[in-house]
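From the thread on structure requests for the teaching lab: each student submitted one protein with a one-line request. Submission from student K.M.:

"Model NlpC/P60 domain-containing protein from Actinocatenispora sera, tokens only."
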Amino acid sequence: MRNGATVSISCQTHGDKVTGRYGTSDLWDRVSGGYVSDTYVYTGSDGRVAKLCGSSSTSTKCSTKGTGDPRGCAKAVTWAKNHRTTRYHSGYYRRCDHIVALAYGFSASGSTTAYVHWTQVPKKYKHAGSTKVPAGGLAFFGGGAGHVMISIGGGKFVSNDIHGNGTYTTTTIKEIKQKWGKPYLGWTQPWFKVNH
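Reply posted by the TA:
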């Protein structure tokens, strides 16, 4: 989207707080091509000017429909919960994208890094900026190679390395952002390059 372009906002959602050209807000606007922080769109209002995104159940629940994943969302969440450990595991250290693939029954994700994985996920499976991640959804962060972790519901996630190298423990989006300083990108349905 070029500077000064006129855009049509189909809906709005709440996500990361951003400071931009038009102030500071946690509001994100859905435009053609994805989401953009409301602080970069002149709407003439500090509040919502369009309906709330994701009001239909199909976009807010985890689904493997059309992804071809070997495991469904509930089984992937169970896998993640059952593999939590506070002990060092060499297969978990700096391998976040690999671990979420394991949860869904793959031996590899098919992407080189978590950030690359985020860029490869088709738009129809992405919820940029949204922090309301259903159990089984994959939460992505930017910054270098990025980071990805699986939601277990209720604002909780299972992530590697956040409580020690090679560990796999329960955390939050807020803790990842504060501890590692990585910007939150949004969440996706469990889509993997290895299957496409």
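TA comment: The helical segments are 57-60, 73-82, 96-103, 114-120, 173-180. DSSP finds five helices and nine strands in the chain.
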